[in-house]
Amino acid sequence: MSVPLYQAKAELFRMLGHPVRIRVLELLQDGPLAVRDLLAAIEVEPSGLSQQLAVLRRSGIVTSTREGSAVVYELAGGDVADLLKAARRILTEVLAGRNELLVELREAEVVAR
User: Fold this and answer.
1) Residue (of 39, 73, 82, 27) closest to 54 by Cα position
2) Taking Cα atoms as reference points, which of 8, 11, 27 lies closest to residue 19?
3) How many CB atoms lie within 10 A of CB 103?
4) pTM: predicted TM-score of the whole model, two decimal places
C-alpha cells in the first residue's frame, strides 16, 4: 500500500523538525564538511550529532563519505538548500507581519494614554 503524498510530505517535515538537523543542513549549504567541523560549529555532544546525522542520512537528505579517518557529509541535492531558503523567506514575511502588528499596538497604546 503506497503512502499518500501529503503523508510523505508530513514525514519529511517531521524529519526536518529538529534544530540540530536544520543547523547541519544550513552548514552543508556551503559545501561538504567533516564531522569534526560540524561539531565545532554546532557545539553539541558527539553522540547527539551522530544521532541527527544518522536520521538525515537514512532519509536521503545527506550523504557521507570517508576521507582517511574523517567522515564528510554533504547535501544529497540542491533542493534541500532551496527548501531552507524558502523557509527563511517565509519566516521573514511572518516575522515582518508580527513586527508591523507590534508597531501598531505600541502606537495605539500611546494614543490611549
Assistant:
1) 73
2) 27
3) 10
4) 0.81
